[in-house]
Amino acid sequence: MFNKKILLFGVFIGCYIHAIYPTYGNRQQLVDPSDQVTIAQSLPVEKHIAPVEVHLAAAKGDVAHIRSLISAGKNVQVLDRNKMSPLHIAAARGHLLCVQELINVGTKVNIVDYLGRTPLYFAAQYGHLAIMRELVAVGATIQLTDCLGRTPLHVASQAGQVACMNYLIQKGAHVDGFDHDDLTPLHYAALSGSFLSVQALIKAGAKVQVFTRQNKFTPLHAAAQSGNVASIQLLIHNHANVNAVTPSGISPLYIAAQHGKLAVLRELLTHKADIHAVDGLNTPLHAAVLGDHLDCLNLLLKAGGHPSVRNKEQNTPLHLAARYGKHDCLKALIATNEVYIHLIGEKQRTPLHWAARSGHLICVEQLIEAGAVIDASDFHNKTPLHLTAFYGHDSCLDKLLKAGANPHATTHIGFTPLHMAAKSRNIRCLQALIEAGVRLSIVDRFQNTPLHLSVAFQNIDASVALIQAGAPVNIANQWGAIPLHIAAKLGDLAALQALIEAKSKVNMTKKSGATALHAVAKKGYTACLKALIQAGSQVRVYNRAKETPLYLAAANGHLACVEALIEADQNQHSITKKLKSKVKDQPLLAKVMKSKPKLDMVNQLRETPLYAAVKYGHVDCVLMLIRHGARVNVRNKRGETLLHIAAQKGCEVCVRAILGTKAPINVVDHYKNTPLHLAAQNGHIKVVQELIRAGALAQRNRFNKTPAYLALQNGHVKCYKLLNV
After folding, report:
1. CA dihedral 386, 391, 396, 397 (to 10 degrees)
2. Interatomic CA distance for residues 433 and 423, integer angstroms
C-alpha cells in the first residue's frame, strides 16, 4: 500500500459490500456497491517554497538575486525542511538561467528531497526539456527512482510530456521499468489519456501485455478507464489482450462499462470483448447498471448482452437496478423481456423484493406495472411487503397494498408485515397496516403479538399506536410473558404506564411464576416498581423458585426498591377493605393501616431477603431490613445463620449490625462451625476481632478443629496469632 501523503499512482479494487440480510431485531443499511476499479491520477507535486531567501529567488526566477547571494558568500545549496534545494525549485518552475547559475557554483544535480525526487524528476514532470538537457549534460542520472520506485520517465509519461519522454528514451531510460507496484511508464501514459505518450512508448519497444503487481492490471485496463479510444486501438493493434481479466474478474470492458466510456466500450466490442465475463463478482452489464450508464447498457444489450446473466451472487442486472434505484436502466431491461422480472436471485429474492427493501418507489411501480408477483417469498418466506415494512418505506408499502399485497403473509417464524413494522422506527408503515385491517392479535411462531415486539424493541410510538388501535395487552407468548412483563424487564416506564392504562394484568405470572414486579425488583427499576405497586401489584408473591420481589431486590442491592416494597407490604396487608371504608375519615387512619411487613419469606433454599443481602454484601439493604424488623436467627439448609454468612464473607458492618440485635454469637451450623470458625478460616481479621470482643468462644467443630487451627491451616497467620493470645 502506498503512503497516502506520497500517493502518485494507485490501483484500488473494491468488492461488493453486501447488504446483510437483516436478522430479526437488527436494521442494516444498504451500502452502494464498491466493486469498482479506481486508478487514481497522480497528485500534483507541491511547489515547495520555503521562507529561505535563495529558495524564494529560485521560485521567482530572479537570477540576479541568486548571483548576488553567491557573491555575498551565501550557501545556495541549503535545504528546506522537506530536503528540497533551490535547484529543485528552479527545475520545477522552469527557470533555466537559475538552474545554470546554481549548476555553475557546484550544486549537486542528483540531490534528492524527502521523497527521493531529483531536480531531473521535477523537470520531466513539468515538461521543461531545456532544463532536462542541462541537468543530464552535467551528470544527472535518468534512472534514479523516488521512494515509490518511479523514474523521471514514469512521471513524464503520466503528465503526458511527450518531448521529455522522447529525450529520456533517447538517453537510455528503461521503457519497461517497474515502480514498486510493478507499474510501467505505459500504465501511466495509458491512464493519462495521452495517445502520443502511449505511441512514443510503444514505438520505443514498451511491452503492452504487462501486469501490475497487486491487481494485475494491464495498460489496456488503464486506457479503458481514461476513455482514450486512440490509445485503445493502438494497444490492441500491438496485441494487447482485449479480454485480460484480473484475479478479481475485472476486464477492460468491465472498466469501460463501469465508468461510462461509451466510445471505448464500442471499440472493445468491435474487437470481440466478452460481454458476459463473470470471473469476478459482476459482468460488464452489471457494471453498467451500477454506474447508471444507460447508453452503455443499451449498447451492451444491442451487442448481445443477456439481461438474465447472473453474477457470482446469482443476481441479474435487473436485481441490481431495482436494488440501487437505477430506474432508467431497469426500464430498459424490462423492455427486453418482461419475463425477467420474475427471476430469483440472491436470497431467493426477485427484483421487487430488492426495490421494496431499498425503498425505490419508481422501481416498485415499474415492476408492478410489468406484472411482478406481489407476494413472492424469499428463502425466509419474506414478501416485498415484509421488507418495506421493516425498513420503513411507507410510500412503497402503500403502493404494494394498493396492488393487492397480502398483509397477513407470514415468514418462516410467523412474522407478518405488522410484526416487522412494530420493530422498526417508522410509525407510518405501522399505521398504514393497521388502517389496512391487519389483525392486531395475530401471533408468530413463538406466540408473540406485534405489541410484544414493539415493546421488546422499545418502540414506544409503535406500542402506543397499537394500544390505541385496540391491540390486546394480555395475550401471553409461549413463555407466558405478556407485553407488560417485557416492558418491566427492560425498565421501559413509558411502555409500562401505557400498558397499565390499557388494563394489562399487573399480577399475571409467566411460566416461571414471575410477575412484572419480580422483574423490576431484580433489575432495580424503582420508578417502574412504584408504578406497578400503585396499579395493584402484590408484593407477597412467589416465583417458581419461591423468591419474592423483596428477595430479588435485596439480593441485587437495590435499596430504593427494598424500601418501596417494605412500605407497600405495610400498606397492602394491614386491614380489610371493609374496615378501610369505615375508618377512612378518621385522623389516625394512616397509623391504623400500617402493619408489620412480612420480611422473612424464604425461598427454596430457606434464604430470606436479609440472608440474600448479607450473602451478597449489600450493607445498606442489610441495615434497612434489620431496622424494619427482619429476623436474624433464621437458618438455611446447612444450618447457617446470618452471622455465619456475614463472618464468612468478611462483612464487618453486617456482623456488627447482626450482633446489635442480640443474635447468639456461638451458634453452630450442621458441622458445628461457629461464626468465628468461618471468619478465621477465611482470614477476616477485623471480623475475628469483632466476634472476640462480643464474646465468641474458641469451640471445636465436628472435625475437632478450633478457629485458630483453621486460620493456620489456610495460611492466615495474623488471625492465628490473634486467636492464640
Report:
1. 40
2. 13
d(CA 486, CA 496): 9
Cβ-count burial 232-260 (b if 16+ within 10 Å, e if not):
bbbbbeeebebebbbebbbbbbbbbbbbb
Q: How confident is the model at residue 16 (pLDDT cuts 50, 70, 90)?
A: very low
pLDDT at residue 409 above 70?
yes
Neighbours of 293 (CB within 10 A): 24
Torsional sign, CA 27, 30, 31, 36? positive
| CATH fold of the domain at 53-170 | 1.25.40
Helix (H) or strand (E) holding 37: strand 37-40
Q: What does the DSSP 8-state code read for residue 23?
A: P
Q: 635-723 has which fold?
A: 1.25.40
Rounded CA-CA distance 211/191 in Å is 14
Entry pTM: 0.80
Q: What is the pLDDT of residue 43?
A: 45
Predicted pLDDT at 605: 87
Angular region, 382: left φ>0, alpha ψ -120 to 50, beta rest: beta
Q: Where are the domains of the chain?
A: 53-170, 473-631, 635-723
Q: Is 546 left (phi over 0), alpha (psi -120 to 50) or beta?
A: left
| DSSP calls for 215-261 | T---HHHHHHHHT-HHHHHHHHHTT--TT---TT---HHHHHHHTT-
Percentage of the chain beyond pLDDT 90 is 75
With DSSP H G I counted as helix, E B as strand and the rest as coil, what are the percentages for the chain, rounded to 5?
Answer: 50, 0, 50
- Give the integer Cα–Cα distance in Å for 466 and 461: 9
User: Are 665 and 658 within 8 A, CB to CB?
Assistant: no
CA distance 111 to 41: 26
CATH 1.25.40.20 fits 473-631, yes or no: yes
Report which of residues 302 and 247 the model is more confident about. 302
| Beta bridge pairs of residue 39 | 11
Helix segments in 417-459, DSSP class H: 417-423, 427-435, 450-456
Determine the Cα–Cα distance for residues 679 and 274; give it in Å rounded to an integer: 84
Tell me the backbone φ, ψ of residue 551, rounded to 5 degrees.
Answer: -60, -45
Q: How far apart are CA 652 and CA 670, in angstroms?
A: 24
Domains 53-170 and 635-723 share a fold: yes
